[in-house]
Specification:
By secondary structure, this protein is mainly alpha-helical. The chain has 7 helices and 2 strands; from the N terminus they run H-E-E-H-H-H-H-H-H. It has one domain. The longest helix has 28 residues.
Amino acid sequence: MTKNKWWVLALTSAVILATMLYGASQYSALPATMVTHWGVDNQPNGWMPKALVVYGLPLLMLGAHWLAVGTTYWASSHGKSAPRFERITVWIIPVVTVVIYVATIRYGLGQAVNIRLWAIAVVGAVFIAMGNYLPTVPAPAAHKGWIGIGYHVPWQVKNPAGALKSMRVLGYVMVAGGVLMLASLFFPAGGLSGCVGAGDCRHDRGDATELPVDDAH
């Protein structure tokens, strides 16, 4: 692995780990149990202890990042290089981590966060970015089944031209899928109530404090 690639790996890893600084700065204000997963209707359906969210989530994403970048660089060093696609690949997990981590912490603080919007937006953007660069994968990388993007089927291995065509088709499909995801944001999810304001998040974020109830009498 070249010196430049080590530098890129160090920089992207630092971006992931830097998110912990934000979580640590808000640690005392966060509930003991935090929401970490939501349904398509914006309603929480998964929780984790605060420490695992603040410190464990970035470390988990860092491990996934090293695995993705490591396999990418390994493929590149074995004659399956796809430089333009590599440049977008190394930044996917850092960007996703920053967006999702900050949204999760803000939700835990009881702030208004539209999780559905951010989740769909980031996934849709990733699909569009990856799909845009897939057609640039060189013939040797596509033909040999480049780790991370290639896939092996008999006709592809025997037909380099077909391998390139498959990369282009896959790229178009991913871009179309990303656009459809973003377009779905203009249509409300069924039963969507979500977290409109800070007060509405108080129960969902793990805080056991009861909301005041007006006396009808």
